[in-house]
Design brief:
The chain is α+β, with helices and mostly antiparallel strands. The chain has one domain (9-121): Winged helix-like DNA-binding domain superfamily/Winged helix DNA-binding domain (Arc Repressor Mutant, subunit A). It contains four helices and seven strands. The protein has helices spanning 9-23, 57-68, 76-84, 94-106; strands at residues 31-34, 37-40, 45-48, 51-53, 74-75, 111-114, 118-121. The chain has a four-stranded antiparallel sheet with strand order 1-2-3-4, covered by helices on one side. α2 (57-68) packs across α4 (94-106).
Length: 126
């Protein structure tokens, strides 16, 4: 396993957690699920209703971050900081572009916009 630069410290922590789970025989817990969507951190792939969806590395990291923070509204600045670790301008529309691409690939209903604040995905029903 490895991380490519740039990476965020949260990604390193997630990778370490995945390695520890694997070492303890709990590798099957490296999947996140919400609304018919399954994100497999080990295989670095996403399935929507059983079908694989091709995502770029940035789209995968952004989707994973959304899925790790369900029910929260995340600002564009916060998302850009996580995704690029300060390498992009905060006023840039790069996050909007990635969200647009994710919506095109996964459907418009998954990621919601909170006008003037940011983006988020809803918490799955219990």
């Amino acid at each position: 396993d490895y991380l490519t630069k740039p990476f965020h410290p949260d990604e390193l922590a997630l990778l370490i957690q995945a390695l520890l789970r694997r070492a303890h025989g709990l590798a099957n817990q490296s999947q996140l699920e919400a609304a018919g969507l399954r994100l497999d951190e080990q295989r670095q792939c996403v399935c929507l209703n059983g079908a694989d969806v091709d995502l770029t590395a940035a789209e995968f990291r952004l989707l994973r971050y959304f899925m790790l923070h369900p029910g929260q509204v995340l600002s564009k600045g916060h998302l850009a900081e996580h995704l690029y670790d300060g390498e992009t301008e905060r006023d840039s529309n790069v996050i909007e572009v990635h969200v647009h691409h994710l919506r095109r690939k996964l459907g418009n209903q998954l990621i919601r916009t909170v006008r003037g604040i940011g983006y988020g995905i809803d918490q799955p029903a219990p």
